[in-house]
Amino acid sequence: MEKISIEKLKELALNLKFDMDEKQYQTLQDEFDIMLRQMEAINKTVDTTNVEPMSFPFDVCFSYLRDDEIVEESPRDEILRNANKVVEGQIQIHKVVE
Amino acid sequence: MNFETIIGIEIHLQLKTKTKMFSPALNTSKAAPNTHVHPIDMGFPGTLPRVNKKAVELALIACKALHCSIDDCLHFDRKNYFYADLPKGYQITQDKRPIGRNGYVTIEVDSKEKNIEIERIHMEEDTAKQLHYTTFTLLDYNRCGIPLIEIVTKPNIRSGKEAAAYVEQLRNILLYLDVSDCKMEEGSLRCDVNVSIRPYGQVEFGTKVEIKNLNSISNVEKAIDYEVKRQKALLLRGEAVEMETRRFDEASKTTVLMRKKTSAVDYKYFTEDNIMPIQLDKNWVNQVISNLPELPHEKETRYQKEYGLSSYDAKVLTSNKPMMQYFEKLVTYYNNYKIMTNWLIVEVLGYLNKNNQTFENMKMEPKELAIMVKYIDEGKISSKQAKDVFEHLMSSSKTVDEIIKELNIVQISDDTTLLAIINEVLTEFSSSIDDYFAGKDRAFGFMIGQIMKKTKGQANPAKVNQLLKQELEKLKK
After folding, report:
1. pLDDT at A58 over 90
2. Per-residue pLDDT tens for A5-22?
């Protein structure tokens, strides 16, 4: 299994728009190391060929769909309360496109 | 060098639901900014998405109408990206298991049919609307969370014309089924086109360019035609086509560079763990897709077969839903389909256009139009008289019989009465008989005119024609 390098972590952090100090990167890398070693150990003892990966802890389906009837909304002031700047009922942000 | 054009189209379609895809906020494009927003749309902590049943229903209808196989277990994924138009930081979409796969749309270009293959249809949520000004951007979250389906074709479209025909056919079908408003100019149907070219015979695809901002069907064709020309010129100059996104510029009718695609964006798709897989009830799915009405192009074929209409007439009739519904009532009353269709396409459409009316508020009942055509066929009224009757039918709510009585319209078709008048005219204008035998065609018309005058235009013209000829033949002997 691929080893997680500090460079890889920095690249991912950039993609996900956050940054950490060197010590935190080191800690994270150590944690990944341990995890990957544990995975390797599992791989040696459990055969996962032909086992479908699971995204949920239980292999169950739901059938609930919401009826397209009742409208519930929040007042605009409430919705915009977290915004730094509001202009004419709209959130103003820095322009990031050319 | 000859090149082959390869086109694939992605269409985003806003579904006609009352509320949003995952939240109970109103689905509307016409409201003051940020007035139809639910905390779910904003991705506030503690909120959980709930799938809209109607949106699923409309997606199923689209799948069925576009001949897709349906996955009746819904799975959603997250498409992760950091941008202000989706405050959650990801879009809920269907990546691994789209609701529909492997469908097609039949188009007709230059009288040839072709199936445009559809790779997938998946459900997702729309993003917020951004208004870009010179130095800042304003955000309106009303659009955020509106239900969408994305319809993706395989790269088997070969020209701008085919692309335009595909978008048009798709729009006709989905508009007819009430799946969406399909308004390109308002953004409820948005079309992105991928275009590449390759020398004929080459197996690998060329570098593709994506074109956005196509707000009409004719622009789809224009943009592709321009883009193909641009790429050909590049290749012929020995330059490479670069992977980039361009937009269509209405004013110059060209495509303009928006951004280079230096590296493929990694959206880090993974399962949306806030929505467990949803197994749709099979009976419900069947009920939704089996109640699909006959589609316009299916009707077009049937009209030609069943009613003997020309392909042009069938196309005109099916291009307008209210007219088609009117026609379907019409044929239940009388069987001269061809003539009734002519009245609809020529007279009725002409009248409606001239008077700024529509089929929806038209006064003439289908039954009355059918009766009128029947009366013409039976010789009860002449075509000329029918035009008067028609004007009255369109402007009042009266029946054909009432109008005929009111206008005192009678058509004389009775042989004895007509013969008496014909002989009167022949005696009065005996010189015309000589002219007629001398080969002057005008003389015949003159005598007809005199007969019509004597009957105040009420004589059955076909009958008069026949009887006058018969009488003249007698005189010849």
Report:
1. no
2. 999 999 889 877 888 999
Cβ–Cβ contact A54 with B under 8 A: no
Residues linked to residue B197 through DSSP beta bridges, in sequence order: B5
Whether residues A97 and B132 touch (CB distance < 8 A) is answered with: yes
A60 at B interface, C-beta within 8 A: yes
CATH 1.20.1540.10 given to domain B415-476: no
- Enclosing H/E stretch for A94: strand A90-94
Distance from CA of B87 to the nearest CA of A (A): 11
**Listed residue (B61, B101, B123, B144) closest to B275, CA to CA:** B123
Per DSSP, the three-state class of A41 is helix
Evaluate whether B285 touches B60 at the Cβ level (below 8 Å): yes
Would you place residue B250 in the very low, low, confident or very high pLDDT band (cuts 50, 70, 90)? confident
Distance of alpha carbon B385 from alpha carbon B394, whole angstroms: 14
Look at chain B and count its residues: 477
3-class DSSP assignment, residue B230? helix
User: First vs last Cα of chain A: how many Å apart?
Assistant: 41
pTM of this structure: 0.77
Kindly give, in sequence order, each residue whose CB lies less than 8 Å from that of residue A93, ignoring residues fewer than 6 positions away.
A85, B84, B136, B137, B138, B139
**Total residues found in chain A within this entry:** 98
Could you tell me which residues come within 8 angstroms of residue B33 by beta carbon, excluding any fewer than 6 positions away?
Answer: A88, A89, A90, B138, B140, B141, B142
Asked if B136's CB is within 8 angstroms of A94's CB, the reply is: yes
**Domain boundaries along the sequence of chain B:** 3-287, 296-406, 415-476
For residue B441, the one-letter residue type is D
Give yes or no for A52 touching B (CB within 8 A): no
B322-349 mean pLDDT: 93
Terminal CA-to-CA distance of chain B, rounded, Å? 78
Q: Is B213 on the interface with A (CB under 8 A)?
A: no
Task: Collect all residues of chain B within an 8 Å Cβ-Cβ radius of residue A62.
Answer: 276-279
Residue B152 CB-half CA count within 13 A: 14
Report B:134-173 residues touching A (Cβ under 8 A).
134-141
Identify the pLDDT of residue B430: 83
Token reading at A79: 């919705």
Residue B150: phi and psi, rounded to 5, are -110, 130
Number of Cβ atoms within 10 Å of the Cβ of B259: 12
State ipTM: 0.80
What is the distance in angstroms between the Cα of A81 and the nearest Cα belonging to chain B? 12
List chain B residues with CB under 8 Å of A70: 19, 24
| pLDDT at residue B21 greater than cutoff 80 | yes
Among all residues of chain A, which has the CA nearest to that of B138? A92
CA B151-B154-B158 angle, 5° bins: 115
